[in-house]
Amino acid sequence: MAAIQQSSGKIRISFRHALSLLGPYVQKRLMEQIRAVSVITLCLVLFQTLVLRIPIAQASVISLGIGLVILGLMFFMEGLFLGIMPLGEQIGVVMPRKSKLPVIIIFSFLLGMGATYAEPAIGILKAAGFAVKPWDAPLLFVLLNKASGILVVSVGVGVGVAVIFGMLRFMYSWSLKPLLYTMTISLLGLTIAVSFNANLRYLVGVAWDCGGVTTGPVTVPLVLALGIGICRVVGSATSGAAGFGVVSLASLFPILMVSVLGLGYVGSVPRPMDETSFFSATNRAKAVAVFVNRDDMIGYALRNASPQSQLALFDNDQGKMLEYVRSLSADPAKAAAVFGLVPGALQAWALGKATPDQRLAVFGSEEAARAAALQSSSTPKKLDLMDIFSRNSLSALQAVIPLSLFLVLVLTLLLREKLPRPDEAVLGVILGLVGMSLFNCGNELGLAKIGAQVGDRLPSSFKAIELTEARQEISNFDMSVVQTAVAPDGTPTKFFFVKSGDRYTPLPFHQERLDPALGRYAHVPVWGPLFGKAMGFWGILVVLLFAFVIGYGATIAEPALNAMGTTVEELTVGTFKKDILIQAVAVGVGVGIVFGVARLVWDFPLWYILAPPYVVTLILTIFSSEEFTNIAWDSGGVTTGPITVPLVLAMGLGVGGQLGIVEGFGILAMASVWPIMLVLLMGVLVNRSRRDAEVDAAGAAA
Amino acid sequence: MSQERRPVARITAIAPSSVGRGPLDAALRAKGILAYNLTSGKGVLLKERTGVLGKLLPGRSLFGVPADILTVLVDPRHEAAALRSAAEALSIGTPGKGSVYSEDLTVCGADETIALNQPSGGAGGAILAGLSGICTIVQRGEGDGLAQSALESGVGGPVVFFGEGTGLRDKLGLLRITIPAEKELVALVTSAEDADPIMDMLIDAGRLDLPGKGFIYTYPVKQGIIDPRVSAGTTSHAATMDQVILALDELKGGSAWRRHDLEGASGRKARTFLTGLVDLTIVCDEGRAGDLVAAAMAAGAAGATISKSRLVAPESATKASPARERCSLIVGEKQLDTIIAAIEKAGLGDDATHGQILLRPVPKACTYLGGGAKKS
Question: Which residue from B232, B235, B290 is facing A420, i.e. has the nearest CB?
């Protein structure tokens, strides 16, 4: 032993010894993530099975997914702490001493832009805007579809500018508060002002949501570490917990950029109107402007609009429309232009959404349609695991590698510094990459999937919903099996028995569900309302309670918040505990999501629930110390990460879809402001107890 | 090639961060202290549990308050003046306002800050002599328990701060990541008579004589004002107990009168202590500690604890980076020259490092000794 100590050479470790070292190390980190993820998983499973009483579909795939989420989070967090954060901090420590101001500004801007591109939030926003109809909210539709590239650029510019301001702040020891006051007040003013414009009012939600979703699990820890590094060498009059604040700015600037973008576009789009007049000839030129081109518009209308509106598009001439559909069927190139490049998209549309006439136009004869219908119902959808893995690995690669490479190049080529502990850094980046791939896969297979299931069915607690995913199709349906039953008051209802396995189940018969041309009957089970009458108080209360639990549970598992909590605890030498921060933020997110969902249920303008909490938060900010202000506003930015966002969106889409809401944005914005408020409140309390501890001594002495 | 070793006095002040670093800096400047090192730490106090929890589980819990630990290097001639300057600038001498003390050290290598500090002195309160410092290095998360034990046995002013350990860990290749490097350091100062029993008590509390638990050592402190405060809470008398203690200290001219009877409790087993050691602290620019410690370890040092600190000095007066690292190595007196030579050879004085070495004697230390001393 003594000899080993004297030598500087490496100790050779046997394989068994290495395992005994790795064992407890892995176990500790694994347990940490299991604890973090278990809350949300248990909530989802128990809620679906006990409250909604619907069995979990694809339970084995979902368990696999949750296992992958846990493993992925474990690797990813370790990668952050070993590779990405030390790299950021090192650059922060060296850059202000070795580089001139313009270089730092350019670096900050590129970092902010790059981070936005590396972790594309546009996919999330598109998902949230899935239900947006061009006639309801033309401006929003344009920004999410045709102009989505420009939307991402403007968000990227917003984050870039925010990082510049954040770094300048550190270098010149500016307080964060004036920036917060001006930004928040002007944004709130803008929000309230545009609420009175029919087109712009729908933009408010997406603008505020952009602020939250831009800062992802790689960006946040990186920017934090960079700020902390910079604060270790610049600015003298700052507190010990300096280095925070960039994330909050990176949440506010994109809101401004998106609002400005919307103002720029508002002139070129039509006003919101009803569906048929939107597609009418008089509005044609303006309607086309909302889409990429004419083909795109027709394809969208055929897929999403009602038959009357489709007719309006063809000047109310049924023959003209059918002729057009027939020409699509004959010309695959044209069909691809209208329906997209997926093979068979036209046929799938014809069998699903199209009217019987349109279907006939596509297939030519009833027999061909019937054969195609049989074929499509007999080929079950397969879960393509390979596809999920390759897609998610690619997105993880995009998020981790370019940023890490950029940082390494800046450090070695621009700053001419050695990479500190290069082996750990490389291991960290690899772990981060593996972790993020596993986590993304697991999220798609597990958490997002069960989240979507619960979200879809959640409205069943307060209204009757159709369980479309439990839809059963009966081919070659023979009307003679339908029987008549009688209610106590004598009303006759029709039903029939269906045999599945050894069981015979009666199902209600609805004429409109039968497709006589294809001989196909579609049964869609109906569920709910589970608690009291439709739109009743108790049912909605259950939904709001669930919203809180989802927000709370998902936030506890968020990796960026975990990294931030660790950083805060480290910098305050344990006087500000990680767990307390995480709990405060999680409760805040829960409360915020309750308000967001309440807005969906009762459909009132977003600023009603956006302005009051922000005003309270600003007032609290005035009375808070600089240290807590920075930490609190940053925690508002980190909350909406890869776990919360899909779950909250699934729930928002589920509830919003069932209630026919135009857009489900704004929930994520609520999940940003409430944590800020709660952390500030906590800071005020902590400061008071600290002051008490000092005052009773100093006061008695005076 | 070895640089000369000069005596130097180091003043260490611990003050609650609520003072704010701006006012703190201004107050020190006014007293002629321009350059100092700043580390974030945590001051701890006991606090009566209140509320529902207090009713259910009465007792005292630990309450952490952010603290700044600042160290000032001055010429030995200015030692007393610097001590009084710092005490007055930070209004130390009131219970709960922190502690300040001075040590006699040896410095190797250039230090620009010593000449910058020309303290003007100040009115002093009760400055106690004959003190002894105890520093404990334990795994992250275990410092609070030790600090609480110290407070409960009546020792005021313990301060906790974070560090990173190297040693055995760095010889494992990449497997080193499986052993946590994060350490917690608990530093406290007590009267020299009390040092032995308190050290014993801390060894018992932290089970520091078991493998992998930690390391504890003492160091001589010349004189200082030590915060007697152990608990937060209001008083029902005209003066707090802390103030009564301070007044008695002043009257009795020392704290020997409140010597603790701790020997009886822990005198059962005879411990083997390490003696004749030296605390070798390298202070250098951030990022360089790894190389210097590696050189020291190649020359025979067992390991080091690295903590980050910040150099506050007028910008024009020093070339060193504000971000500094401080590596403390406990080495044997006989190894000292070889190790210092190795560190100097590794680039202690170069332009990327701006380092110096501070030496202080360690009369007594304790850790797990069975099967070879290990300090990771």
Answer: B290
Nearest chain B residue to A15 by CA: give it: B175
Please count the residues of chain A: 702
Q: Which member of B97, B229, B323 has the closest CB to residue A232?
A: B323
ipTM entry: 0.83
- Nearest-Å Rg of the Cα atoms of chain B is 20
* pLDDT tens sequence across A124-135: 777 666 677 888
| Predicted TM-score (pTM) of this structure | 0.85
Residue type, A66: I
Nearest to B17 among A22, A239, A417 (CB): A239
CB atoms near residue A295 (< 10 Å): 16
Residues of B whose CB is below 8 A from A694: 16, 18, 65, 96
Task: Round to whole Å and give the CA distance between A327 and A337.
Answer: 12
Query: For A195-245, where are the alpha helices, taking DSSP H only?
Result: 203-213, 219-233
To 10 degrees, the CA torsion angle through A91, A93, A95, A100?
Answer: 160
Closest chain B residue to the Cα of A428, Cα to Cα: B177
Which candidate, A66, A10, A19, A76, places its Cα nearest to that of A43? A66
Name the token pair of A25.
Answer: 């190390």
Within 13 A of B282's CA, how many CA atoms are on the CB side?
38
Which secondary structure element, helix H or strand E, spans residue A153, and what is its range? helix A148-171
Q: What is the pLDDT of residues A602-633, one digit of tens each?
A: 888 888 888 899 999 999 999 888 888 889 99
Nearest partner of B80 among B253, B222, B192, judged by Cα:
B222
Burial of B238 (C-beta count, 10 Å sphere; 0-12/13-18/19+): exposed
Q: Residue A176: which of A232, A238, A245, A231 has the closest Cα?
A: A245
Asked if A575 reaches chain B (Cβ–Cβ under 8 Å), the answer is: yes
Contact state of A240 with B239 under an 8 Å Cβ cutoff: no
| Packing angle of the helix pair A85-98, A101-118 (nearest 10 deg) | 160
Beta strands in A421-574 (DSSP E): 465-466, 472-474, 483-486, 492-500, 503-508, 514-515, 520-523, 526-527
